[in-house]
Specification:
Blueprint: H1 2-6, E1 26-30, E2 37-42, E3 47-55, E4 58-66, H2 72-87, H3 92-100, H4 105-116, H5 123-138, H6 148-159, H7 163-182, H8 214-222, H9 227-239, H10 243-247, E5 254-255, E6 260-263, E7 272-275, H11 278-285, H12 310-320, H13 328-340, H14 345-352, H15 357-393
Antiparallel strand pairs: 1-2, 2-3, 3-4, 5-6, 6-7
Helix pairs in contact: 4-5, 5-7, 6-7, 8-12, 9-11, 9-13, 13-15, 14-15
């Protein structure tokens, strides 16, 4: 092919060569060293290096570069690389399209969350994880450049302070990259970059606030300066509502006359009313309304609800000396204290919006444990009295 190119390829020199769909106006002269490499030239005089290959029974023609941009040796080197990919069932044309249409990880996250909004009600949790742990570190990278080491680094970083959360982040990323492969944003021939991450060991646990710790927790909540933060944690304890339910609650959903709030968008998919105690109503009445913001608990962004509770919750946990307590455990606390006060399992089930009574029974076990602890403490106190009396009689 080099000799032909030096003679300044013309149509008269390629009689009998292969033709593309365009007929004689788009002729190709094939290289003798690499048969699938050729020079394609047009009536306009423009010439391009091309390769031809078969993929899944279909012949395809790919332009490598315009003649003059690459030398013959460079074209042969490029051709070998692309044809080697074909031998591994990778279509170079599709790969090039992916590069041209390449998305950053930030763009993939945005597309994934828009998809999740139509699929699950807890999409905001996925969005928060991606925005906090993923985008700051790899958000600007192209999706196809992400590998196992990148996700492992994120998992390791989060594991230092939140091992369970690190597992949730890895799971969210895994689901997102599965979708990326379905959407052909991430090469389907490559393994999901989250595959192979060793998750942190987890133990199922049911935490709640004991009588001993409750005064400390209440005091710690009241030290928070933001009135909406204080209101959130108080209402979580008083109503047992989920974090998302409270944060998305609007003033129009609150009926103080009927002493209840209306939840239209719930985890169970069924709208429900949540009754309000006098204590909860007092908290709501003391919560200032923010101008042009419909939410009961508004955030710093105009028109949006309260968002990040992680920092104030860390302060509250530290002050109350409850380092293992999670925000969701406030809901468990509400349920267990209702049962302890004599409410039936079915009543608590309706208040908390559980689909199954079995879910609510965990709160009965928590209340039972507290009763057992009280009996145990009482027994130890009696034994101590007996011991003291014996020592006094000696």
């Amino acid at each position: 092919m080099g000799d032909v190119i030096r003679k300044k390829l013309t149509k008269s020199l390629i009689d009998g060569m292969e033709f593309e769909d365009g007929g004689p106006s788009q002729q190709i002269c094939w290289d003798t060293e690499i048969p699938n490499l050729g020079v394609r030239f047009y009536e306009s005089g423009r010439k391009s290096f091309v390769i031809q290959y078969s993929m899944q029974g279909r012949w395809r023609l790919m332009v490598l570069a315009r003649y003059g941009i690459l030398t013959v040796d460079q074209a042969r080197k490029r051709a070998r690389k692309e044809l080697a990919a074909v031998s591994e069932d990778i279509d170079p044309i599709d790969a090039r399209k992916r590069v041209r249409q390449a998305k950053t990880v930030s763009e993939l996250c945005e597309q994934y969350i828009e998809h999740q909004k139509t699929q699950i009600k807890t999409w905001a949790t996925d969005e928060a994880r991606l925005e906090k742990y993923v985008i700051p570190h790899i958000g600007k990278r192209r999706v196809e450049t992400i590998d196992l080491e990148d996700i492992q680094a994120i998992h390791k970083r989060v594991s230092k302070h939140a091992p369970y959360q690190a597992n949730r982040v890895a799971s969210t990323c895994s689901k997102m990259f599965n979708k990326a492969q379905q959407w052909k944003i991430f090469p389907p021939e490559l393994p999901n970059p989250c595959k192979g991450i060793e998750r942190n060991k987890e133990q199922s646990r049911a935490e709640y606030v004991t009588q001993e710790k409750l005064p400390n927790l209440m005091s710690a909540i009241d030290t928070e300066k933001d009135p909406y933060v204080r209101a959130f944690f108080w209402l979580a304890l008083l109503t047992g509502m989920r974090r998302g339910e409270l944060l998305n609650l609007k003033w129009d959903d609150v009926d103080l006359d009927q002493r209840r709030v209306y939840l239209q968008d719930t985890k169970s998919g069924q709208p429900r009313y949540v009754p309000l105690s006098k204590a909860a109503i007092k908290i709501i009445k003391a919560t200032p309304k923010m101008l042009k913001n419909p939410y009961l608990l508004p955030g710093h962004v105009r028109g949006k609800p309260l968002y990040n509770l992680d920092k104030p919750w860390l302060r509250i946990r530290k002050a109350a000396d409850v380092p293992r307590l999670r925000i969701h455990d406030l809901r468990r606390t509400a349920g267990s204290w209702m049962v302890q006060a004599g409410s039936s399992i079915h009543a608590v089930k309706d208040v908390l919006g559980h689909k199954k009574t079995l879910t609510t029974e965990i709160y009965a076990r928590l209340a039972e444990q507290q009763s057992r602890d009280a009996v145990e403490a009482h027994g130890e106190a009696l034994l101590e009295v007996v011991k003291e009396s014996k020592r006094g009689s000696v």
